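#onboarding

Welcome to the new folks! Below is a worked example of what a typical request in this channel looks like: someone posts a single protein sequence, and someone else replies with the predicted structure as tokens. Don't worry about understanding the tokens yet, we'll cover that in week two.

Example request:
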Amino acid sequence: MENIQQQIEAFLTEDEWPYETLEDDIGLHVRYGGENDEWSCYVLVDEEQSLLVFYSVLDVGVPPAMRNTIAEFIARANFGLILGNFEMDFSDGELRYKTSIDLTGIDLPKALIRSLLYTNVVVMDKYLPGIVGVLTDGMTPEAAVALVEESD
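Example response:
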């Protein structure tokens, strides 16, 4: 039986997502291009704990002067999200979207992998205009989230 990472690699290959293995074989790196931009994605697997985590990470960190404002944007965006969440590291400004699953005692069907990965990148792509609006266009977090969520 294949381990979790092997199953993810098979899915990525089949779905034509070029990937590279991270140092120390701790996961995989993928570049993803949505309608609004391109960014890095990371698949992290903990085989012992049966955990699978998928991150979409903006290529540029949030500047220190904007971190509190983006934190408000994240809080407002996260409130309505059912699957996954935005996170920001206040120390370096890394902004990312995370989806994850505990696979203890269950098999990992392709449909579950697809849902975990595609939910992540679709949400990241959807909210990117709001993030850019706050960072570069001076939008308030409230207005930026409303703009993104009204486009549904």
